[in-house]
Design goal:
The protein is α+β, with helices and mostly antiparallel strands. The protein has 27 helices and 16 strands. It has a five-stranded antiparallel sheet. It has a five-stranded antiparallel sheet with strand order 8-9-10-11-14, covered by helices on one side. Strands 3-4-6-5 form a four-stranded antiparallel sheet. A hairpin with a 4-residue loop joins strand 10 and strand 11. Helix 10 runs antiparallel to helix 11. The protein is elongated, with a radius of gyration of 44 Å.
C-alpha cells in the first residue's frame, strides 16, 4: 500500500510538472504573439503621433490644411487605424494656438462620407484622394464663412488657398508616408520623394510651434536635428535643401521665424561640407552657420538661445546610432551607402542566378550520365543472349511443325544446337551451300535442312537490320549525352563567369574615376565588368565632344598604366537619344593579331566549290581558322562542308570544349543522312594573348608553318568526320612566333603533283620559294602555281587559307601620372 501511494504521489507530481511546463509554453506563445503583433503595428504609434502634431499645425495664422490631407492618405494606406488617426487629429487641433476641433472634425466627416460614397460605386482610389480633400475642405470652410459674421473677398480667397494647400499636401503625403514608414519597395528615392519627406517632417515640426523647454524652442531643435541627420547622410546639397524647406515651412507658421530659412540653409551647407570629419565636425559646421547669422541679425539673448538650441540638436545627433544615418543614406542617390546597397543587391542577384545556372548544369550533367549509362547497359548485352534469341526465332519457324522436334531438341539437344550454330556461322560468313552441297552431318540430322537454311538466312537479315537500327538509336543517345555534357560545361562556365562578375568592384571603379578626373576629364560613370588579367572589360560613360578622341589617346593609356597591361578601346556605342552619354568599352589589348588571306577555285571552273572555310574570332581571346572539304564536288559537297563548319563554329563560340564540339559535329553528320557522306575538317585555334596554337585535323591534308626560310609541316592520320561514330581527334599544339605564316589547304592543292611525287616535300619547297609575306598574295601565288602545274586546268576543288601572326603594337603608349597607384585586382573565383 505504501508503495502504491508513493507511486501515486510521484505520478501526481509529474502531472503537476507537465501542467506547469505546458502553462509556461502557452505563456511564452502568448508573449511571442504579443511581440509579433507589436512589431506588426510598430508604425501605428508614430503615425498617431504625427497626426496629433499635424492637427495642431497652423500656417499663415489661421490655415490648417494638414489634417484632411493626412487622414485621406492614411485611409487608403492603413485603413485599420484611420479611426485612431481621426481622433488624434481632432485632439491635436484642440491644443492648437487657436483651437478648431469642430471644423477639423467636420472636414474629416465630410471626407469620410465622400470616401464611403465612392466605395459604394467602387470608384475609391488613392488617385482620387487630392480631389476629395480639396472638395471636403472647400465645403466646410465655405460653410464657416457663410455662417460667420464677416463676408469678404479676402475670406473667400483664404478658403480657396487652404483647399489648394490641402490638395498639394495630399500629393506630398502620398509620396512621403511610404518612405517615412519604410514600406516603399524601391532601394532608391527620387528627388521629388526626398523633397516630399522634407515637407512632411517640416509640417510635423510646425505642430510643435510654441513649445518651449528651458528657453529653447522645440521646433528649432527638431529642425536643426533633422538638418544634421540629412547633412550627415547626403552631404552639403541635401543639408542645404533640408534647411531651405524646413525654414520655409516654419516661417509660414511663425512670421518671426523668417530668418530661419536662410540660417538653416547656410547651416545645412556647412554641416554637409564637414560631414567627412564625423558627427562632431558636422555639428560644429551647423553651430557655426547658425551663430554667424544670429550674431548678425539678433540680440544677445537670441544668440545664446540659438546656441543652446544648436547644442541640443548636436547632442541628439551624437546620441543617434550610426545605423540610422546609414539607413537614411542608403536611400539617397549619389551616396556611398546607396552605391554599396546597389552593389550588394546586384551581387545577390548574380549569386542567385549563378546558383540556379549551376543547378541546371548539374541536371544536364546527370542527364548526360544517365544516357551514357543506358548506352553502356545496352552494349553489355551478351552475345550468347543474342544468339539464343536468334536460335529460338529460327526454331519456332522451322521446327514447331516438325515430327522430329522432340528427338532433336530434347534427346539430341547439344548436337542440334551445335549444328544450328554451324549453320548460323555459314550464314554470317555468306558461304551458304546449295541444297546438294550441304554437309552430310546437316542433312542426316535435319530432314528440313534446306528450309532451316532459308529461314535462318531470312532471320539473319532481319537480325542485321535490327542491329543497324539499334546502333542508330545508340548513336543518337550518345549524341544527346555528348550534347548534354557540353551544355553542362557551358552552363558551369557561365555560372563561374557570373560569380566572378559579382565581385565588389566599386572601390576600383572609384579609383578609375578619380584618376580620369585628375587629368581634367569629366566622366558620368564607370562600370567594371571584368578585371581578370588578359580579359579586362571596363565600361565608361562620357559626353566628350567629337574630334578629340580622348578615349584612345588619354583614358586607354591611363588604364594601361593603372592595370599594368595594354588596354584598348573595344567598342564605342553612340547615345540613342540626344543628351544621353556615350558608352565606351575598354578591353585588354591582345598581344597578337592575325592577318588572313584566302584563295580558291571550283573544279572545272564552276561557281560552286565543295570546299568551305571559316575565319572567326571566338570571343574569348581566341581566333579560329578552319577548312572543310566535302566528299566529291558541287552543291552536295558544299552542303556537307559548310554544315560541318557552321555547326562547329557555333559550338566553339558557345564555349564548348574543342574535342567535344568536333565529336558532336561528327554525330550530327552521321545522323543527318543515310547515305555515305563525309567531310574533312582542318582547324587551327590561335590564342591571341600567347600565340599558342592548337591544331585539330580530321581526315585533312597537312598544314604548313612558314617561319623565315623554314617550312614546318603539321600532319595527322585519321578518318574524316561523318564515317564512323568513334573518331580519333588528333591535337597538335605549337607555340607560334611573331611573323609565322600558317598555310592550310584542301586536297585539291595538296594532291596537285600526283602520286608519283612526295607531296609533302613538293609543297614545302613551293611554300619556301614564295618571296612574299603578305597572306593574300601568298594564297593567290600558291593557287596560281598549282593551276599552272596542271596547264591551266582545275582538276579538283581548291582552297588555300593563309594566316600570319603578328605582334600587336598599341596605338598609344601608356604614360605615368603622378599620384596614380597600381590597381589591386580581386581574386579570381574558382
Amino acid at each position: 500500500m505504501k508503495k502504491e501511494s508513493a507511486m501515486g504521489n510521484l505520478a501526481m507530481k509529474r502531472e503537476g510538472m507537465f501542467r506547469s511546463f505546458g502553462e509556461k509554453v502557452r505563456e511564452l506563445r502568448a508573449v511571442k504573439g504579443a511581440v509579433s503583433m507589436l512589431l506588426a503595428k510598430k508604425w501605428t504609434i508614430l503615425l498617431v503621433a504625427v497626426a496629433f502634431l499635424l492637427g495642431r499645425a497652423v500656417i499663415l495664422e489661421s490655415l490648417m490644411p494638414f489634417a484632411a490631407a493626412y487622414f485621406a492618405v492614411i485611409y487608403f494606406m492603413r485603413k485599420d487605424i484611420y479611426g485612431y488617426i481621426a481622433v488624434s487629429l481632432v485632439a491635436g487641433s484642440w491644443f492648437a494656438a487657436e483651437p478648431a476641433p469642430l471644423w477639423i472634425a467636420m472636414e474629416i466627416a465630410v471626407l469620410f462620407l465622400l470616401l464611403k460614397g465612392l466605395e459604394a460605386y467602387e470608384r475609391a482610389e488613392l488617385s482620387t484622394a487630392p480631389v476629395l480633400v480639396f472638395t471636403a475642405t472647400l465645403l466646410v470652410q465655405m460653410f464657416g464663412v457663410f455662417i460667420g459674421d464677416a463676408l469678404s473677398w479676402y475670406s473667400f480667397m483664404m478658403v480657396v488657398v487652404e483647399a489648394a494647400l490641402a490638395f498639394v499636401l495630399t500629393l506630398v503625403f502620398i509620396h512621403a508616408i511610404p518612405v517615412l514608414t519604410m514600406t516603399k519597395k524601391s532601394a532608391a528615392l527620387k528627388h521629388e520623394e526626398i523633397i516630399c519627406v522634407m515637407i512632411l517632417l517640416a509640417s510635423v515640426m510646425t505642430g510643435a510651434v510654441g513649445w518651449m523647454m528651458y528657453g529653447m524652442s522645440a521646433e528649432h531643435v527638431m529642425s536643426r536635428y533633422m538638418l544634421l541627420l540629412f547633412a550627415m547622410a547626403g552631404g552639403a546639397p541635401l543639408g542645404a535643401s533640408v534647411g531651405v524647406v524646413a525654414g520655409l515651412i516654419l516661417s509660414l507658421a511663425d512670421f518671426s521665424a523668417v530668418v530661419q530659412m536662410s540660417m538653416l540653409a547656410f547651416a545645412g551647407l556647412l554641416a554637409g561640407l564637414l560631414r567627412d570629419g564625423g558627427k562632431m565636425a558636422a555639428a560644429f559646421g551647423m553651430l557655426l552657420g547658425t551663430s554667424i547669422l544670429s550674431i548678425y541679425i539678433g540680440t544677445g539673448t537670441d544668440v545664446m538661445s540659438s546656441t543652446w538650441e544648436s547644442v541640443a540638436a548636436a547632442t541628439l545627433l551624437l546620441l543617434t546610432p550610426r545605423g540610422v544615418i546609414r539607413t537614411i543614406a542608403r536611400y539617397v542617390p549619389g551616396t556611398n551607402e546607396h552605391a554599396k546597397s546597389q552593389h550588394d543587391y546586384a551581387k545577390r542577384v548574380r549569386e542567385v542566378t549563378a546558383e540556379r545556372v549551376s543547378q541546371f548544369s548539374d541536371v544536364f550533367r546527370q542527364l548526360s550520365k544517365s544516357f551514357g549509362q543506358l548506352n553502356q547497359n545496352v552494349a553489355e548485352v551478351k552475345k550468347e543472349e543474342e544468339i539464343g534469341h536468334f536460335m529460338n526465332a529460327v526454331a519456332e519457324r522451322s521446327c514447331a511443325s516438325c515430327h522430329r522436334q522432340n528427338a532433336c531438341w530434347e534427346d539430341k539437344f547439344f548436337h542440334t544446337y551445335k549444328m544450328m550454330t554451324d549453320m548460323m556461322s555459314a550464314v554470317e560468313e555468306d558461304r551458304i551451300p546449295a541444297s546438294k552441297e550441304q554437309p552430310r552431318t546437316w542433312t542426316s540430322h535435319c530432314v528440313k535442312s534446306s528450309q532451316v537454311m532459308s529461314i535462318m538466312k531470312h532471320q539473319y537479315e532481319l537480325h542485321q537490320n535490327n542491329k543497324h537500327w539499334k546502333k542508330q538509336i545508340l548513336d543518337s543517345r550518345q549524341l544527346v549525352a555528348d550534347q548534354l555534357l557540353g551544355v553542362s560545361q557551358v552552363m558551369e562556365d557561365l555560372s563561374r563567369e557570373i560569380k566572378r562578375e559579382g565581385q565588389t568592384l566599386h572601390l576600383q571603379e572609384e579609383q578609375i574615376r578619380e584618376a580620369v578626373e585628375g587629368l581634367g576629364l569629366s566622366i558620368q560613370g564607370v562600370d567594371i565588368v571584368n578585371l581578370e588579367e588578359g580579359n579586362v572589360e571596363i565600361e565608361v560613360y562620357h559626353s566628350f565632344d567629337k574630334g578629340f578622341d580622348e578615349c584612345r589617346k588619354i583614358i586607354a593609356p591611363l588604364l594601361s598604366d593603372i592595370l599594368g597591361e595594354h588596354i584598348a578601346v573595344k567598342t564605342e556605342v553612340p547615345p540613342s537619344k540626344h543628351g544621353e552619354p556615350t558608352m565606351v568599352t575598354f578591353a585588354s589589348a591582345k598581344q597578337y593579331e592575325i592577318e588572313t588571306g584566302v584563295a580558291g577555285a571550283a573544279k572545272g571552273g564552276d561557281l560552286l566549290s565543295g570546299d568551305s572555310f571559316s575565319l572567326v574570332e571566338l570571343g574569348n581571346g581566341k581566333f579560329a581558322v578552319a577548312i572543310s572539304d566535302g566528299m566529291g564536288n558541287g552543291e552536295r559537297a558544299r552542303q556537307e562542308s559548310s554544315a560541318a563548319l557552321s555547326i562547329l563554329q557555333q559550338l566553339l563560340q558557345s564555349g564548348m570544349d574543342e574535342k567535344l564540339a568536333v565529336k558532336s559535329v561528327n554525330s550530327v553528320l552521321l545522323l543527318r543522312s543515310s547515305e555515305e557522306m563525309y567531310a574533312t575538317v582542318d582547324l587551327a585555334i590561335v590564342d591571341l594573348y600567347t600565340a599558342h596554337t592548337t591544331f585539330m585535323k580530321i581526315g585533312s591534308t597537312p598544314s604548313f608553318i612558314k617561319r623565315g626560310k623554314d617550312v614546318i609541316p603539321i600532319t595527322a592520320n585519321n578518318l574524316p568526320i561523318g564515317i564512323i561514330q568513334d573518331i580519333d581527334v588528333d591535337f597538335v599544339s605549337m607555340q607560334l612566333q611573331p611573323g609565322d605564316t600558317l598555310v592550310m589547304m584542301s586536297d585539291g592543292i595538296y594532291d596537285a603533283p600526283g602520286h608519283a611525287v612526295n607531296k609533302e616535300m613538293w609543297m614545302k619547297r613551293i611554300i619556301g620559294e614564295m618571296q612574299t609575306d603578305d597572306p593574300q598574295e601568298l594564297a593567290d601565288a600558291l593557287l596560281e602555281r598549282v593551276v599552272r602545274h596542271h596547264d591551266g586546268e582545275i582538276v579538283d576543288d581548291m582552297t588555300v587559307l593563309v594566316a600570319r601572326v603578328d605582334k600587336h603594337q598599341p596605338e598609344w603608349a601608356s604614360f605615368r601620372w603622378p599620384g596614380v597607384t597600381r590597381m589591386e585586382r580581386p581574386r579570381t573565383v574558382s
